[in-house]
Amino acid sequence: MKQGAIRLGLVLFPAVAVTASLFVGRYPVGLQEVIGALLPLDGVSPTARVLILDVRLPRALGAALVGASLALSGAVFQGIFRNPLVDSRILGVSSGAAFGAALALLLGIPWYLVDAFAFGFGLLAVFLVVLVARRFGNSVLVLVISGILVGSLFSAFLGMIKYVADPLDVLPAITFWLLGSLSGTRWDAVEKLLVVCVMGAGTLLLLRWRLNLLTLDEREAAALGVNATRLRTRVILVGTLLVASAVSQAGMIGWIGLITPHAARALTGPDHSRVLPASMLMGAGFLVLLDLLSRTLMRSEIPLGILTGIVGVPAFLLLFMRHLARGGGWR
Amino acid sequence: MRALLAVAVALLLGLGAFPQGKLVVTDQAGNHVEIETPVKRVVSLYGVATMYLYALGVQDRLVLGTFVGLKPGSPSWEALMSVDPGLPDKYTRTKPSLEEALAREPDLVLASLWKDPEATEEFVPFDVPVVILHAEDVEGIRGTTELLGRIFGVEERAARLLSYFDAMVRAIASAVAGLGAARPRTLFVGARPLRVASGEMYQTQLIELAGGDPVAAQLRGYWQDVDIEQLFLWDPEVIFIAPYGKVTPEDLLNDPLWHGISAVRSRRVHKMPRVFAPWDIPTPESFLGLLWMATKLHPDIGIDVVAEVKAFYREFYGYELPDGLVTVIEG
Amino acid sequence: MKLSAHGVSYAYRPGVPVLQRISLELGAGKVYFLLGPNGSGKTTLLECLCGLRAPQEGRISLGDRDLYVLPPMERARAIAYVPQIHRPVFGYRVLEVVLMGRAPHLGLLSTPGRRDLAIAFAALDAVGLSKLADHVYTELSGGEMRLVLIARGLAQEPRFLLLDEPDAHLDPKHQHGILELVRGLAAEGLSPVLTTHNPNNALLYADSVAILRRGLLVAQGPRDEVLTPRNISIAYGMEFELIGGNQGLKAFVPVQGRSSRSDFGVN
């Protein structure tokens, strides 16, 4: 496929997805109303206008930003850890964020600060991982093991919180948060996501070619004058910011960070200077579409985390088998 | 000969001083349970059932029990303390372990059909009878009330409780019919604004009995999370908020997004009260929940809620409702 | 500009020295062979010379500056390292692999530009693999893969090209192809340094040789001075004979016990 056509397709994909989600939803809304709400024109019922501008649009944009953040950080982590089977959860940021949210809910912290707790504890988890890893040599293997340890620790704490939580109101809130959902995404959430996404994605996109060097082994990278450890640590921190922000807004959503980079690589090859932007765009589009399904398939919402799993696993198998059949891509 | 007679008389008198009985009941799981009366020590693994003991005036026989969403130090706790000073010794926040229960040397264990159907087997080796109860809808409430009345020898009180309920239902039905008003579209939300009670839950039955039209009647299962678009579609005219959880009417009334919903525009958003237990939980207090709902759905119904509520607590719980709680109910 | 080691010692574990007080000088435009058996420390020495292992004693200098004080990028612009094996995790194409050699010339936030691409292409051309630019690296043969790594090193535009056993695991044709290439590069002003344990390759291609045994320098200097049967025998701990020499073709041949001479069938 020609690269130009691919690029065009990649840019159009999220744009079309976001536009489509303005039209689709349980409440029936027509083409005229969508256009009328956006332009804006008269003759649109107030309910429809509010729905399109204050419910569907911010939610679609939120989904796009969350999807882009997760996919980008997934691609970056796969490069850092030299392993295409890695997800951004490997360093425990999701476990930390989940614990933070559960803690906030348990302590009765006001709802608008729950996300901040999730974000903070997600970052804390990764800081701990980096500190522990530094103590023990900072190699990739040590990072992975630290990530497992810290992640498990926070998961255990989360279990404790679930055990002591009031089953009538706190526990269901925690469960709901953990399953992942974009319902209730308003413009303020979109702003928060945008800020982090711009900063984080901006940095990583500037580093996009340099990341290729992190896939080399330690000696080769050092021979090329690259301070792999420093670069890796910085990239981890930026990637974590993206994941923590996404998870704190949307709850635990997996698989996007794992699968999207594979799909991107299948289209553009493994050069990170192309994989990173491609992953972002594809991740944005995917999640917008999945969120669309989550709020329209049934009368009640299907948690997004469940949908990504249901769609993600077979998609991954398909991609993986196809690529193995072609004999290339990865070992 | 006379000595023998004297001994026989003494024996008979002695036996008569300790009236022992055997009662066989069919519990709500269909099991035949043999109980030795009088029952003096009850362990309740079923929070809903625990509240029936208070309504039937036999709370002194409770030695250990779970409650429903009860937090030590809360107003409900204080209220219960005033009718049961021994509360702290009997209260357990989570379901007690087998050993914990046995340590209290119970004559009887109450368990829930929903959550502990195997309780019967668990206690068999220890010769403790288990009565499985299922008070999750109107039929279940009747069954539980009658059953517990028989077991504790307070049939008369149980019958009074049930006829109170029947009378209330009839009164509401005729008052609503008399008004000739339509049934308002009604929604019951739980611990979160978008978490609604499904058609299979007790709250929906209450709405129907109170003269409302439950909009979420077609939802199945337990609490369901819906999208706000679904709420726009349903457009309830009255919204009830469960007593537990942190949602207040102000949360909905002040949110510009919700102004598209009739109930919010006409400010008919009400948080249900709780005294000993939340009024939407299927305990006898839910009769008051029904009453309260009816007065909110049909303000012209002409029932003095406060007077009825005070009378109910006086008669069945021996409790004088303090003014603080009266305001909660009026609001 | 010379790359030199001054009294360099290195130990992986304290008390177990792998290099002991090695001093040598690598000059411009000459093919330098580091010869020695397994465990002689030649690979370690190569890595010290690359800037990958700081010696515990002595120093490595580039020109008159300590190599390990130099900023890594500057060092990488002068010295390129060609490993024996490169195991990529992703299916990079040959050109993308070579392009990574431009890293020392690119800032942290830069992507390779047209000039970098041109240099990468030229490097690939220098090793004769321009046609394979678009192939996936892992689909190449062993010899081709090694050539790509050399091209990557060339893309760094270095003065010194340090190769770790470039002749290992290759059949004779490919071995000599690579060594010829390396010698050709020296003719263009590059200074290749390579490790090997094959004394005959040194005979054919080296300008200067250093022989190591168990971390100690057995001999160093111009090839013909250093590559004597005595030095080789000391280095490898077995007897070698130098045969030939009449038509300029020489080879070291091991003496395997007195009885095997006749088996060998060589006069």
Whole-number tally of structural domains of chain B: 2
- Percent of sequence in beta strands of chain C: 25-35%
Largest interface: A-C, 31 and 38 residues
The total beta strand count of chain B reads: 13
Question: What CATH first level of the domain at 3-86 and 159-236 in chain C would be assigned?
Answer: Alpha Beta
Helix content of chain C: 25-40%
Helical fraction of chain B:
40-55%
Catalogue the unreliable spans of chain B: none
Structural class of chain C: alpha/beta
Rounded to the nearest angstrom, the radius of gyration of chain C is 19 Å
Number of strands of chain C: 12
Secondary structure tally, helices of chain C: 10
CATH superfamily of the largest domain in chain B: Nitrogenase molybdenum iron protein domain
Looking at this protein, list some descriptive labels.
heterotrimer; A: 331 residues; ABC transporter involved in vitamin B12 uptake, BtuC; globular; C: 267 residues; Rossmann fold; six-stranded mixed sheet; four-stranded antiparallel sheet; 10 helices
Could you characterize the architecture of this molecule?
The complex is a heterotrimer of chains A (about 325), B (about 325) and C (about 270). In chain A, about 75% of the residues lie in helices and about 0% in strands. Chain A is mostly helical and about 325 residues long. Chain B has about 325 residues and is α/β, with parallel strands linked by helices. Chain B folds into two domains: about 140 residues, Nitrogenase molybdenum iron protein domain (Rossmann fold); about 160 residues, Nitrogenase molybdenum iron protein domain (Rossmann fold). In chain B, the strands form four sheets. In chain B, strands 5-4-3-6-7 form a five-stranded parallel sheet. The radius of gyration of chain B is 23 Å and the shape is elongated. Chain C is of the alpha/beta class. Chain C has a domain of about 160 residues: Rossmann fold. Chain C has ten helices and twelve strands. Chain C has a six-stranded mixed sheet with strand order 6-7-8-3-9-10, with helices on both faces. In chain C, strands 2-1-4-5 form a four-stranded antiparallel sheet, with helices on one face. A two-stranded antiparallel ribbon of chain C has the order 11-12. The longest helix of chain C has 16 residues. Chain C is globular. Chains in contact: A-B, A-C. At the A-C interface, helix 9 of A face helix 2 and strand 6 of C.
